[in-house]
Amino acid sequence: MTTHPTDEKLMAYADGELSHQEAVEIEAFLEVNDEARALVEQFQRNAERIKAAYVPTLNSAVPDKLIDAVMSSPTRAKSTVIQMSEFRKSISKNSSMALALAASIALVIGATAGSWMTQLNPTTIQTASIALGPVAKGTPLENLLEKQPSGTELATNDEAKSERLLVIATFRDSKDRICREIEVLDDALGKQPVAAGVACRNAGAATWVVEGAARVKVANAASSTDYVPSGANEADVLQGLLNILGAREALAPNDERSLLDRGWQ
């Protein structure tokens, strides 16, 4: 192989999804390219960590009581199982770190939501308001990330949900990008956080990209029949994301304000 394979192709190799001939070509390339080999090893380490954390849960039987609770729920929303191929398309293809994160989070999604969907076919899993990938211009999330200081709340403009967006902190990553930690709060639950994530700014294009997100387990559900399978532990997922990004200390309010006033320049 004379051309550098894409990061997506390297991820597919790490996942064992390539044909024999393609795998042989990638292996030949990895023998002479230390950077690509290190990236593949990172993909594989992430996959092994997630597998080790969730295989015991996947192999355990689902309690009858849980099945009854889920299937008897009065509301049945649309299911949101995310296929690996669709997940990859939503990740910025220009970021090796984003692709490394995709390998980890896609496995978390598959190991939790996918497993419950296969065994129970529940339809109570809700999609978080923080979508992975580029943030559309003019949306409440883009407005929050681009113009608002930490501690500011904005409505999501989704009339079907009583959710608000909140910036928790601003920091720089290892590439010196501006990144912001965000949460989705549910007014109906006393402003409990229901999702959290991190978005980073592409300075050249003045756009934001959500690099990763996790659903937050909601405490004190209103009814024992309103069971919603939770995602991976949000603190662990977000900490893993911050580690991958090489997050530095949060900016002081004055420093954040100064950057906001200068358009993050």
How would you briefly describe this protein structure?
By secondary structure, the protein is α+β, with helices and mostly antiparallel strands.
Give a description of the structure.
- With 265 residues, this protein is an alpha+beta fold.
- The chain has a domain at 128-265.
- It is 43% helix and 17% strand.
- The chain is built from 9 helices and 6 strands.
- It has helices at residues 7-14, 20-30, 34-59, 64-71, 84-89, 96-120, 140-147, 234-245, 253-261; strands at 133-134, 153-155, 163-172, 178-186, 192-202, 207-215.
- It has a 6-stranded antiparallel beta sheet with strand order 1-6-5-4-3-2, sandwiched between helices.
- The radius of gyration is 20 Å and the shape is globular.
